[in-house]
Amino acid sequence: MMVLTTRDREISGCGLAGIISRKKILIPGETIIRSISHMIERGNGLGAGYAGYGIYPQFADAYAFHVMYDDELARKETEEYIRKHFHVIHYEEIPTKKTKNIQESPLLWRYFLKPIEPPDVESFVEEDFVMKAVMDINDKIKGAYVFSSGKNMGAFKGVGEPDEIGEFYRIEEYQAYLWTAHTRFPTNTPGWWGGAHPFTLLDWAVVHNGEISSYGTNKRYLEMFGYKCTLRTDTEVVAYLIDLLVRRHKLPLRIAAYALASPFWKDIDRLPERQRRLFTAIRMVYGAALLNGPFAILVSWNGGLMGLNDRIKLRPFVAAVKDDKVYMASEESAIREVCPSPDRVWAPKAGDPVIALFEDFDGGEQFREYQV
Amino acid sequence: MLYKSLSSFPVFELERDYDKCIVCGCCVQQCTYDATYYLPYAKKVITDEHKCVGCKRCEAMCPTGAIKVRAVSNEFKHNAYWDARTIRDIYKQADQGGVILTGGGNDRRFRVYWDHLLIDACQVTNPSIDPLREPMELRTFLGRKPDALKIEYDENGEPDLKTELYPNLVAEVPVIFAPMSYGALNLNMHKAMAAAADAMGTYWNTGEGSLHRDLYKYGHCTIVQVASGRFGVSAEYLKVAAAVEIKIGQGAKPGIGGHLPGEKVDEEISKTRMIPVGSDALSPAPHHDIYSIEDLRQLIYAIKEATNYEKPVSVKIAAVHNVAAIASGIARAGADIIVLDGFRGGTGASPAIVRDYVGIPVEIAIAVVDQRLRDEGIRNWVSIIAAGGIRNSADVIKAIALGADGVYIGTAALLAVGCTLCHKCYTGKCAWGITTNDPYIANRLNPEIAAERLINLLKGWAHEMKEMLGLMGINAIESLKGNRLRLRAVGLTKEEMDILGVLPAGEGL
Amino acid sequence: MNHRIKRVYPIEENCMGCRLCEVACAIEHSEFKDPIMTFFNGKPQSFTTVEVDRNFSFSLNCRHCDEPYCVEACITGAMHKEPDGRVIVYEDICVGCYMCVVSCPWGAVNPKEGAKKAAKCDLCPDRELPACVQACPNRALVFDTTEELVFELPEEEEEPFVEG
Amino acid sequence: MAEYLIAGNSVAAVSAIQAIRERDKEGRITVISPEPYTAYCRPLITYVLAGDVEEWRLPYKRESFYQQNKVEVLYNVKLDGVDVSERTAYLSDGKKVAFDKLLLAVGGKPFIPPIEGIDGPDVYTFTTIADMKALAGRLEDIKKVVVIGAGMIGMKTAEALAKRDKEVVIVELMDRILPMVLDKEGSSFAEKALDRAGISYVLGDSVVGVGRDASGKVRRVELKSGAKIECDAVVVAVGVRPNTTPVEGSGIEVNKGIIVDDMMETNVEGVYAAGDCAESYDIILGQKRPNLVWPIAYRHGLIAGANMAGGRRRFVGGFPINSIGFFGFQVVSAGMSAVGEDEEASIEVLKFIDESKGVYRKVVIANNRLLGFCVIGDIRRAGLYTGLIWSRMDVSYFKELLVEHISLPEAIYPIDGALPAMNFSDRKNIRRFGWAVFPYSYRKLFTGYSARIEEICAFDDKGVCFYDGADDEG
Amino acid sequence: MEPLIIDAKGMHYRRLNQMIRDKVAEGYRHFILENVNGQRYIGAGIMEEVFIEIHGVAGNDLGVFMKRGTIIVYDNAQDGVGNTMEGTKIVVHGMAGDVCGYGMRGGKLHILRDIGYRTGIHMKTYKDMVPVIIIGGKAGDFFGEYMAGGILILLNLWDDDDRPVVGNFLATGMHGGTIYIRGEVDPYLFGKEVGVVEVTEEDKLLLRKHISEYCEDFKDHGLDVDEIMSESFTKLIPVSTRPYGKIYAY
Predict the structure, then answer these.
(1) CATH of domain C67-120
(2) Is B123 part of the contact surface with chain A (CB cutoff 8 Å)?
(3) CATH topology of domain B12-98
(4) Which is catalytic among the residues A3, A9, A10, A14?
């Protein structure tokens, strides 16, 4: 187990921050570093990460795979696999900069890929194909880990303080219209590079504060649908559940959020008949998708940003709006650091998703409902 | 009797403190086995220990605590292999040449997997939840569920459910009273279970002896059984119930049929089972219309047709070695619920040899069935009810964590109302008034008191389950379902852990 | 009939004939209040009697009638109906003529053990519930007013039991 | 405002006052009391004579009772006559009292047989405090007393005198003690008790003359058989008859007693009779007759009082109930109890006798109904027989059990305090009593828990209970 | 109301039965089903007095759990006819398959031709509910197995092959009811729980009553009661109502 203790800290939990520009005005990486670093007390230096959307405009149509390798052998094997299944548009080592505390890291590469459609598959779903590739690499190739696989987005994460990780990955050099960030205080799982947040699948990226006590149930549920939970951490199930419910089962995003943090029976029982039927059905069918335990999560994708709290709000979560920008973070101070005078600041209700979509995003009916 | 057959070595001895005996006669009146009687001239009550079955009724009822019933101290010469019971059984069969009957559940020393599984708790990183103040939900849906929901927005922008749901049972506590037939039990016990299930928002199961007319009012919380004997199975019986269960097998006696002796078939049982008074009620081992899985499908759909597809259909099987494959077949045959009855399950009467040595533990059965159904991607199609030896709320939690949706409790329910597990159910003389049909002895079981006790039991278990959910940091039972990471094994072999799908104690994650 | 008076009613469906009500009554009304002392050193007397007939039993005790036979028959005024409805005997006035014993159609008034007095159920004034009711393990005795207690009678009378 | 006049001041008067006041809180009630006492218990005077009971405990009701019920009592006054057309009563002190409702509760009068020399001092009757005081005042001069009549009064008086260390001889015309209650067999138990107590008795003989000395003092009695018994005093206790003297010639119908209907009203509207003076329905004989016993007098008064105050209550009927104990002998009985086994073909007599324990039980059955019983010795739960008489239940299904098992708790709580000895020989077959065979009837009785058994239940010819609703309260 | 004619060609049984149930709820009582071919569960659980005529081969579990009414099949029927039925009369103008009348508690099955294996298993009697199965042809093995009540009549009218009238293991486990078989039966076929008794006059009256009704149902086939009754019958009853009471040691 790689437990790297950099500084002595008292226990306080994780922190997360996210900024979205609904008009897709690019936000410099420096902003999100400042925001997350303001909550440095919430982490212990054992993990931090960022996800940015809109950072690869030149490869907007290609799946951007960020891959960590333990060694060159793993890279060789992985690249063989990739070449077999994808057209490689471009690939390179992810530019990094050694910092005072981060002297060593896994090999970090990125690939811009387009799937090679297999000839014998009847109904080819590109996303399923990519998802399977990610699962295969992570599951089967020792020492290789795809930690980002969406289009025009990328996750950057590692072991270290958020400011150091930002510096390491040279985040300030990127510009994105949606950023999420995370600082980590790992306990249950070793503080390894892959274990840092965000967790991603396709363009879904999840940062998470808390612990999913229902992990075992969620994991075995997801396994029925071909997801492999290999990362020894609970957060990955969130990304997969969102992918399953929203992308594959086509649930409206808000409904998916209600499946993850469903209302209590005593509240459901008081609803009017139609809604009661709906919520009862959600809990009946998606009971295994319920995220139980304390959590606050930010889910980002190419359509926008969603923040969600567990149903009894055991983790802090604040949201704010300023012009076209929506901020979400564990602490209000992280927002104020980068947006001193927001139009509105509020603490969302437990289990009620905060959804901010890009104005030009057309996700169809599924994303009809949003607030902010 | 001067001459005693070898089999009549007493099993129990009754110690009576004559300094305390006030000769009130309560023990004499309460003993249904005629083991205790009064000596008028000596003005003493004495006991014929050969007849004592160790039910402890006299001990419980003695107002001065003058009686203690104990297992005999002068057993046979100690022998770890030829134990006393084995010896007695051989004597008995040598005497009578029959099948040795017994009641209750398996009492042999097989490994109890429940006791090798420990429950994980939260500390700091994922906080435990206080169930006294925080909400804690046990509501459980039993029945087939669609794999996914289709939800669309209507013209008003309201989300609208487009998926047709299958009928489900909704249990507020995932603990259901196990099928125990009217005949094996008396009506008072049925009344008590029905009332308790009603009060607790859960269900009870009639067993194969049909449903007494007086209990039709409890139809909404009743699971009715259709067994090979088809006793009292009518369209009304099926329609009044909340769910219909096809009984294929029983954990206590897999592959063995039921047999209610004619002398137990009195007027009321006759009316309920719709057979003549005094006639044997035989349930053959197989349903004679089910000799293959497609026949089961035929019966399942016959019941669904007869109930207009409004009720879930459950199939109860004994846990046997290829239970996973069977369960998969049952799920694919259209059942909504599968009941897995482990070898610890109780019975009113069974050949002892079958009860003791046939079947597999329900823990194993749940694990393999849940895994198999998940592997096949059909876990949503059926709910799993675990039955057979669920003793306490921890067993319930463990069963659900292994993959069950709910549990049946039979023996525990009987214990709650006074059963002392003397295993003499088949004699019809149950001194606690539970398994007897002698109307006067049955008076001993006041349905009102029994229902209260059952309610208390369920309430206690529900509280404990909430505590345990809370300590796991979970506030809804669905997050426990199949959550095997919440269990850790102690003292199990690698193979057993693999089958159960649990990690050894001490391993993280 | 006065429905508001609490009385002890037997529920015959629940009676199993264990007769612990008798024992409890005897203990409660003995000077010792202890089962063994009562039965070995005292003069045990129960005011309730369990009637048993093979498959049928119930505990029979004083009904605290509205117009009690025993009160009518009492020549001294010792047998008395209290304003709260209880029928009790003032032992210091009683001369032990036993007119009450012979007139009670329920056999619920009896000579007191060891004294020339009448003795009967007093509904255990010192207790919240009469001892017999509390002792009944099967709630075959209830202590209640008839307002809440309604017996369900069968529509048609059953044929009287004929001993074969 | 109604004017109630009650002639007599014993138990019937008391219960009538209570019944009137239950319905009419205002009406004026006047009681004519022939004696200078509040209502007291006649049977108790023997206890006072014996010294068992202090005199102050005699009153059945005290002055406060009359005050609370706003009753005016005229003491030491008798009813002399009634003018029913004028609705006026004539009193012995010459006064006239007008009434709206009159209750004749004038009781009985001791019967004094025509015996030579019986008139004069030292011959006592024993029904009033005055009688008792007269005898008590002379006790010092008396050594030996002859008691004529072995009935209730005779026996209790004899016991009282014996307790005061007087020699007592009982003379009885019939061949047995307590001839109205016991048959010869039962009497033998009583005789044994008398023998044990050293009381002499002469049965089957009668006193034909009272011998007095010159001063008029009683010295001896002469019997029909010719025997002579030396004595200083004679107590005449051969019976009490209804007192009908006050209504003679008034137009109120009289037979042996005053005739009343089942509402206790005489042939004259507004005039009621109750207690020993009245003739009422006897459910055992099926006809009206005087029943001179305490509980019936109480019941008479209660019903008469209720009806006088405007109620509509009926007297269903009654039968004699007796309990007496003397010299350690205790007997209770009701109804037809003295009848012998072969006296009437239609009558069946069942007995249980245990000489050693002094237990004797006898029931009299006719037409499958219990008509009477007599229990000597262990009288526990004997009232159940009374209940059976009241309910007119068919006892043929369980009659053998009647004498054997009625007090089967024999017993769990024995008189002598010895260890209980239950009869478990037929444990599964314990049958205590007849109620057990009538579960439904029984339960029906139970719903009318506190009501009168004779009013809430009746049994048809087959012994099946039916509820007739009891005509009560108009 | 006019009979409702339903063309069942190619219809799934679930739709067909749903239609029948809906129409019963609307008040229809007489149904004529055309082109039936194997649709299962026809009449399942219907509690109203219906009259269903089926043209074609009726599928499995015909009349299962039915309480009253009449079903006439103008062709053969498959397995499980009258399964756990309470009181319907089913007339089959042809043959029927295996496990017919299983757990039947009332009503009648009149089968014109042969019947398959395991007929009348666990048939029961309760008070005046006495199920009756009359088979015109022959029957397979386990005829009347576990029979607990009711009447089985096997007529053997069309002796058109050399099979015996009834198969092996006749009435094993039988503990109630009566079986009448027209003609002689080889005792070798009997299960061990059954015994032959003489046919009394009362039996004959009962047989005549049932067979008359049977002949009436099949009057187009020229059946005659007297002719049928002219041959002798074998009557079988269980030797004990408690066949397995003695195999236990207590």
Answers:
(1) 3.30.70.20
(2) no
(3) Alpha-Beta Plaits (3.30.70)
(4) A14
> Which DSSP string do the residues of B1-46 spell out, in sequence order?
--S--GGG--SEEEEE-TTT-----HHHHH-TTS-EEEETTTTEEE
Q: Tell whether B37 lies on the interface with D, counting CB pairs under 8 A.
A: yes
User: Which tens digits make up the pLDDT trace of A264-287?
Assistant: 998 899 999 998 999 999 999 999
> How do the domains of chain E map onto residue ranges?
94-238
Q: Do D60 and C77 touch (CB under 8 A)?
A: yes
DSSP A71: S
Distance CA C123, CA C101 (A): 18
**Which residues of chain C make contact with D333, given a CB cutoff of 8 A?**
102
Q: How far apart are CA E48 and CA E1, in angstroms?
A: 15
Domain range list for chain C? 1-61+126-145, 67-120
Cross-chain CB nearest to C99 (options D323, D390, D433): D323
- Whether B119 has its CB under 8 Å from any CB of chain A: the answer is no
Fold of domain B161-504? TIM Barrel (3.20.20)
Q: How confident is the model at residue B172 (pLDDT cuts 50, 70, 90)?
A: very high
Q: Which residues of chain A are within 8 Å of residue B383 when distances are taken between CB atoms?
A: none
DSSP, res E203: H
Is B71's Cβ below 8 Å from some Cβ in A?
no
Query: Can you name the residues that pair with C142 across neighbouring β-strands?
Result: C9
Chains that touch D (3 or more CB pairs under 8 A): B, C
Q: How confident is the model at residue B66 (pLDDT cuts 50, 70, 90)?
A: very high
> Confidence class of residue C53 from pLDDT cuts 50, 70 and 90?
low
Chains B and D, touching by 3 or more CB pairs within 8 angstroms: yes
Is B280's CB within 8 Å of E249's CB?
A: no
**Matching residue, tokens 């236990």:** E248
Q: Is A14 a catalytic residue?
A: yes
Q: Which residue has the tokens 């109780």?
A: B346
Instruction: Provide the number of CB pairs (under 8 Å) joining chain B to chain D.
Output: 27
Architecture of domain E94-238: 3 Solenoid (2.160)
Identify the structural domains of chain D with CATH numbers, from first to last. 3-108+241-308 (3.50.50.60), 123-238 (3.50.50.60), 336-466 (no CATH)
Among the residue ranges B470-479, C45-54, D181-190, the one predicted with the least confidence is C45-54
Is residue B221 classed as helix, strand or coil in its secondary structure?
A: helix
Chain A partners within 8 Å of B122 (Cβ): 211, 213, 293
Q: What is the pLDDT of residue C164?
A: 33
Q: From the CB coordinates, do chains C and D have 3 or more pairs under 8 Å?
A: yes
**Beta-carbon separation of E121 and B288 below 8 A:** yes
> In whole angstroms, how far apart are CA D161 and each of D129, D142, E143?
15, 10, 95
* The one-letter amino acid at B386: A
The whole-number average pLDDT for the span D87-114 is 92
Distance of CA B249 to the CA centre of its chain: 13
Residues of chain D with C-beta less than 8 angstroms from the C-beta of B22? 420
Where do the CATH 3.20.20.70 domains begin and end in chain B?
161-504
Least confident of A177-186, D173-182, D419-428: D419-428
- The angle, 0 to 180 degrees and rounded to 10, between the axes of the packed helices A29-37 and A162-169 is 160
User: How close C71 gets to chain B, by Cα (Å)?
Assistant: 32
**Inter-chain contacts counted by CB atoms under 8 A, chains C and D:** 201
Task: Give the pLDDT of residue A4.
Answer: 32
Residues of chain D with pLDDT > 70, as a percent, come to 84
pLDDT in tens, A112-158: 999 888 877 777 888 888 988 998 898 888 888 898 999 999 999 88
Candidates B99, B233, B238; nearest CB to E103: B233
pLDDT over 50 (residue C158) = no
Four-point Cα dihedral D326, D331, D335, D339, nearest 10: -100
Looking at chain B, which residues constitute the CATH 3.30.70.20 domain(s)?
12-98
Taking the alpha carbons at both ends of chain E, their separation in whole angstroms is: 62
